Amino acid sequence: MSAVETIHVNGAWQAAASGAQREVLDPADAKTLALVAEGGVADTDAAVAAARRAFDEGAWPRTPVAERAALLRRVADLLQRDREAIALTESRDTGKTLEEGRVDVDDVTNAFRYFADLVMNESGGRVVDAGSPDVHSVVVYEPVGVCAMITPWNYPLLQASWKIAPALAAGNTFVIKPSEVTPLSTVHLMKLLVEAGLPAGVGNVVTGSGDPVGARLAEHPDVDLVSFTGGLASGTKVMEAAAASVKKVALELGGKNPNVVFADACATEEGFDTAVDQALNAAFIHSGQVCSAGARLIIEDSVRDRFVAELARRAERIKLGRGTEPGVECGPLVSAAQLAKTERYVAAALAEGASLRCGGSRPEPSQIRPATGYFYSPTVLDHCHGEMSVVREETFGPILTVETFHTEDEAVALANDTEYGLAGAVWTTDAGRARRVAGRLRHGTVWINDYHPYLPQAEWGGFGKSGIGRELGPSGLNEYREPKHIYQNLAPRPVRWFGG
Length: 500
Known about the structure:
Blueprint: E1 7-9, E2 12-14, E3 21-26, E4 31-37, H1 41-56, H2 65-81, H3 83-94, H4 98-120, E5 126-128, E6 135-143, E7 146-150, H5 156-170, E8 173-177, H6 184-196, E9 203-205, H7 210-219, E10 225-229, H8 232-243, E11 248-252, E12 258-261, H9 269-284, E13 296-300, H10 301-315, H11 336-351, E14 355-358, E15 379-382, H12 389-392, E16 399-405, H13 408-416, E17 423-427, H14 431-440, E18 445-448, E19 467-468, H15 473-478, E20 481-489
Parallel strand pairs: 7-8, 7-10, 8-9, 10-11, 12-13, 12-17, 13-16, 15-16, 17-18
Antiparallel strand pairs: 1-2, 3-4, 5-6, 6-20, 11-19, 14-15
Helix pairs in contact: 1-7, 2-4, 2-5, 2-6, 3-4, 4-5, 7-8, 9-10
Pathway: Amine and polyamine biosynthesis; betaine biosynthesis via choline pathway; betaine from betaine aldehyde: step 1/1
InterPro entries: Ald_DH/histidinol_DH, Ald_DH_C, Ald_DH_CS_CYS, Ald_DH_CS_GLU, Ald_DH_N, Aldehyde_DH_dom
Active site: 252
């Protein structure tokens, strides 16, 4: 396999049909990290055709569940074997720290093992009582068919696993298009699937840009389901393109996530320290390039001044640098475009009346190595309100906005004042308040006195413009299946509906 043979179709690695290539840049120094194939429509059509044949004519959809589960477990073992190499690839490709890359590999491993266990523990279908001893009625679940998967640049390996593992567990075939910015870990994962014994054509990869590869996948008449994780604008285009063939669509489109802190959570020094620390984690992990980032701090007025002052003090001390370097706490943004976008949001917020508490610029070259990367200082913007674009739109950068409330009702209203609804958190020592607020928040995941953990057993997805469908958990498996009702009459006899 050459450096530019990153397209995998029907069991073979190949270059793009056009011969086109793309540079993948290291965001820490803006230098070329790798060359990959720049696929197009022809490559996409070939991959879909291979997946279609593998589903319609191949053995995988009819492979016993135990064998499919065994393959997923082999992939999990191979992921742990290659843990350091994959984590390094993910760190260098996305800019995140090496430790974050290791956590990602472990989470991906857990996802493959979870879906293997889930399908193994299922029964043979749901028996339906038809009200007659002469009828046997059962609902069974079958694979959807050919699945198109389009994944984002911030968690390329993790998001690939959330789609590939349940799709294979259910008996589907797939074509995956990783982000053109961060494709390398998905290519590695495909190699492990092949090594684990995945039949030719069942899994296919096309590296390339959203237009034309992603667009073609979304509209392709031989694709039965498209699963997309990314931005709202691109997600709506995917949905529009998929509508013509009425294929199933699953979308995770990010969020503008509130982190609500009540004063009682800060009543002790330990509580205060924990809430501030978690607010930093919520906003600045992976430089804020997280769909569930707690980018909106909503803080009770009585503790606001002290809390924001300490938050800004600690944010200023976050150590930036190349993610593979020891001691680095936050890496660069993924690209020059993302850096420019972050700068525009901060400039707009300041023009709209926000107060800059820390950050707000690129770090001085003398403060960071390498100085040529896409770095931006963690930024805290105070005195924000819901009319600001930085509060309403997903910034995907190291920007934390601060809003203030006085009452519980006001806190809930602020937290729900968003078109999105992916995730949110509430911090309080009042158990009753915690349950009340969590119940009122219109977000797919709500943390109480915590931020960011997720479980492969629990569904992930959002309300509103955060998307449709769910990943992970039993619902994440069912996204890749179709229910079928089988009704068997054990004692057929004439109906005599018509007298003739």
